[in-house]
Amino acid sequence: MKSYSPELAYYCLFLVSLWLSGTLLEELLQCRLLGELLIGIVFGNLGSLLPEDKSTLILAGEVGVLGLIFEAGLGTDIHKILRAGPRGTLVALIGTIVPLATGFGFISAIVKFPSLQDPDPEKPISVKTEALASGAALASTSIACAIATMKQRGMLETPLGTLITTAAMIDDVVSLVLLSIVSGIGNLASGEETGSGIEPMTIIQPIVASLGIIAFGFIACNVAAKFHGWRSSTQVVGLPTEQTPEQEPEQEYTSTSISEYEAKETCETNEVRKTKSRRSAVQSRAILVYKTFAPTIKLATMIITGFGFSILTEYLGSSRLLGAFVAGVFFSSFHSLKALYDENIEHKLQPAMSAIFFATIGFAIPLTKILDPTLFGWGIAYTVIASFSKLITAVLVPSSPQPADGRRQRSNDRWVVGTAMIARGELGLLMVQQALLQGVMGESVMIVTTWSIVLCTLIGIGALGFVMNRA
To answer: Which of 53, 229, 353, 357 has its CA 20 to 30 Å from the CA of residue 425?
Structure first.
């Protein structure tokens, strides 16, 4: 008799819990990933709820995060980035460099305390690489939180909304480049020559590869835009015009020749009609088949191209996530393909895959350590520093040159920009996970950084809503 296996019931419970917790936290705090992260921590630490081998779920999470980054690229508008220009770039650079520097300094200072050290004589972790990975994770910005909040208040399409989304996009691109560097250091640390130090090419190659991929994506987007413009112009200019058929020379016919001619013409007309009828039937079937399968083929080609480009990007020495993002930016100019993706993937499959990814991050967090008061205290201190390191953009970066209502509105615009940059979100958690898996960050620093990312996300959402309500 076959014994009963509870694994299927546990998997169903896991998926239902993910959905319920994500929906509840989305309604209460507008932070869905927090609920999914908590479920991952619970199921990851209670070994009886899921099998020890969670490789299938982890692999599904990897696919989910590629889709998440690809979706972010699809939502990127190159024209908006170009319109925001130097102001958006300035906000992004300040919002990246300052958190990276402060995070590096903070972790470098506190990692010397015994509570944050993870002694492992076989795989010692360099303090500098650990601090760099943590600072890079806190340099990112959650564009999803900012967009959701501004959408609710109708500010997304305003110049201020364009500035914030542009700065967040540039922040994420720079963070992806930093992730490439951290991955390169992690690959070196996991190799055999761990004691030989970090060579310059370990840092230079990811930067050069990433910049080359970004440049290639920008050129490809421009080519696609010009192609669309050329097609539109040819469709407008090349419309068929009415043409008068060439008049045949008049001929004289006798009564006999006329009857023969009519019979011949009638025969030819019947043959032509039959041929046209058969051709029309074939064309109708072909059109029907094309309309049935064309969306599926286009969507499959789009997804395969995105995954293929991400693999190529990783092979060249950069991050596969950057490749997925650039591929998404390229396809963002094809509105029909974007609509297909939104309808079939973004609103149906992607939420489940993203939820599994955030849960897999929770798998790697030990429950006993995340509840450690000392680590939680360091996480709060890190949150304060990380929040101010983003809020500084409100002081150093001027607001919109065309404020809606005098000096008070100008000041409020600056604080909207600053608070919108505080929330970290999905990319920061991803960088922490990658750093832990590749051996460039210990568990204690990972927990402190995770606490900071989660708390910054909650603070950023609340602060942005408060400031925008006072606008």
So the answer is: 53
Planar angle of CA 288, 289, 294, nearest 5 degrees: 105
Q: Give pLDDT tens digits for 41-93.
A: 888 877 666 766 677 888 888 888 888 888 878 877 777 777 766 777 888 88
H or E segment at 207?
helix 200-237
Q: Which percentage of the chain shows pLDDT scores above 70?
A: 72
Query: Does this model's pTM top 0.85?
Result: no
pLDDT computed for residue 259 by the predictor: 59
Measured CA distances, 334 to 268, 329, 331 (Å): 46, 10, 5
Q: Is residue 196 part of a domain?
A: no
pLDDT classification of 248: cutoffs 50, 70, 90: very low
Residue given tokens 């914030």 in the structure block: 164
Distance CA 386, CA 425 (A): 13
Number of domains, the chain? 1
184, pLDDT greater than 50:
yes
Q: Which residue is associated with the tokens 């998926």?
A: 15
Distance in angstroms (rounded) separating the CA atoms of residues 184 and 171:
20
Structure tokens at 134: 């943590």
Domain that holds residue 93: 85-189+207-220+311-328+366-469
Q: Is residue 132 part of a domain?
A: yes
Residue 20 lies in a domain: no
How far, in Å, are 73, 80, 399, 413 from residue 159 at the CA level?
A: 20, 9, 10, 11
122 belongs to a structural domain = yes
Q: What's the average model confidence in pLDDT over 403-432?
A: 71
Q: Which residues, at least 6 apart from 57, have a Cβ–Cβ distance to it below 8 Å?
A: 50, 356, 359, 360, 363
CA distances in angstroms from 396 to 98, 355, 393, 417, 457, listed in the order given: 11, 36, 5, 11, 22
What pLDDT is recorded for position 355? Answer: 84
The first and second tokens of residue 319, run together, are 């991050």
CA atoms within 13 A on the CB side of 64: 23
Burial of 13 per CB tally in 10 Å (0-12, 13-18, 19+): middle
pLDDT average, residue stretch 214-221: 83
What tokens does 23 get? Answer: 């929906």
Tell me what pLDDT residue 381 has.
93
**From the CB of residue 436, how many other CB atoms can be counted at a distance below 10 Å?**
22
The one-letter code for the residue type at 465 is G
Q: Find tokens 């008070």 and name the residue.
A: 408
Domain with residue 378: its CATH number is 1.20.1530.20
Distance, in Å, from the CA atom of 206 to the CA atom of 223, rounded to the nearest integer, reads 25
State the angle between helix axes of 350-363 and 55-74 in degrees (0 to 180), rounded to the nearest 10: 130
